[in-house]
Amino acid sequence: MNAFPFSLSSSTIPLIIVGISFTAVSAAPTHLIDEEPVAISRIDKGAILIDFGKAAYGNVRLMPTADAKGEVTVHYGEDLQDGRINRKPPGTVRYNLATVTLSGDKAIVANPPPDPRNTELISTRKFPHPPAILTPPEWGVVLPFRWVELEGWSGEISPDQIVRQTAYLVNWDDEAAHFESSDQLLNRIWDLCKYSIKATNVAGIYIDGDRERIPYEADAYLNQLSHYYTDSDKEMGRDSIDHLLLNGTWPTEWAPHMVFMVYLDYLHTGDLNWMAGRYNILKERMLFHRRGEDHLIFSEELDMSRHDIVDWPKGERDKYVFTPRNTVVNSFHIRTLQLMIKMAREVRAVDDLAQFELQLAASKKAFNETFLDKETGLYRDGIGTKHSSSHANFFPLAFGITPENLREKHVKWLAERGMTMSVYAAQYFLEALFENGADAEALALITADGDRSWKHMLDSGTTITWEAWDMKYKANQDWNHPWGAAPANLFPRYLLGAQPLTPGWDTARISPRIADLESAKGKVPTRHGPILIDWSQKDGFQMSLELPENILALVDLPLIKGSTQVLLNGKAVSATQEKERWVLDAPVTGKAQLEVK
What we know:
Radius of gyration: 25 Å
Largest sheet: 9 strands, antiparallel
Distance between the termini: 51 Å
Mean pLDDT: 94
Strand content: 15-25%
Structural class: alpha+beta
Low-confidence stretches: 1-25
């Protein structure tokens, strides 16, 4: 296997915004890896089908024999129909072709023509967008594909005569993370989602997919969440943050995601200096310019008709009613206040801290007084409407805004309504369920029959997650979209139960959500080294936990029916019963065997 390393930029750009100076690297290093096909078959006398097993971004290099000559047409495709590459696939599912002329045994790369849309640097649209992220010209044109058809190739072709030059992150480590459970469907979903993160990090900066190859804040945050749980590299996440701080996009709720991204990086790395260098500019992403005297974010006509996105595509909004004050936008504002309070405390911004705490208290109070329907106990979409969508309720629940006494009611209502949102918003919906004890309900929705689940993606035969649940929900969707890979972060965070509690994983939370699984085990990357977790509930509950040095773990375990104690390395330890959990009173370090009896 040959690797051709290439850093998209070895130069650095000094970035100075509102008096804060830091360095932005254009992109993390990516490279091309040679991958041989997994299957080759003769379609007919004139055509050969090559299957690379999984879709990935790349192109192909041909190594013909010494007597080769003439033209060969190379068809690239993501979709196979009746045993042939679909030349007219739906939406922006990829198809392209290249024609090359063979001349003896000289190796040749079959470069299809570039796509004008995903190489656009200056937007001429009515609503301009930031520049697309270009891949190195040395690579030639790359695109996502699984299958190749050759026309005009004389005789047979062996696997070593055609390789896919596949683009991956240089630092990607296949062994950094692992998940395995007693449910084979969950294991397949994890594999799909983990690979999706690997395969779509082609550009060195998180892009939304192949259609535009543009970083968007919400896409990037979901990509970052899953990337940090499946790999040890943080450079791509950081470079994506710095790029987006210079190239923001249009949706209202996308700007607050920058606060989410910087705090997530700080939580995983513990790098105070890096976070502090971006702290001040994050204030511009908190929507304060739209905060009214009533402590709520207001929306004007253009906001309601275009900027307030709620969910995407539009048909996934559960009939959300847009109003001048709405729940979703205000939920995001409140969440930025929650996170900025944490960061202000770390950078010792005393004045900011005091102000943010007052604003948070006022906003939460106004939120619940304004949007909570006293008759139904649910949140309405906004002022002036009685409609309560799923979105108006799962975002506040995921962000810890919903009053404690209403959370069980909201969880039950949301779980019964099911997946009434997009692949993007499902990240927050499922977080709301997992965080509030509805792990069985969350898994049931992830693996549900029908066309709104990850089971459906697997059943479709895809090897990279989609932009939407199905073509009928987004006619122009990409089949290579990392924001569809939420289980890549949800499974380690909740089923294994490993999350950082303090910056840099110095203190971890270990809280496995077991649902009706018999067992689960896995490996979670941290800056101190991997956390290893292996639990079973075949007879009571047992868990093997291995923590790296310098990590303290606060552990809580399921309150198995009839259990009376928790054992640590065979000895009873002090633990408190809280909300169907056994919470260990003292932190755990090193290797530990835990048992609920």
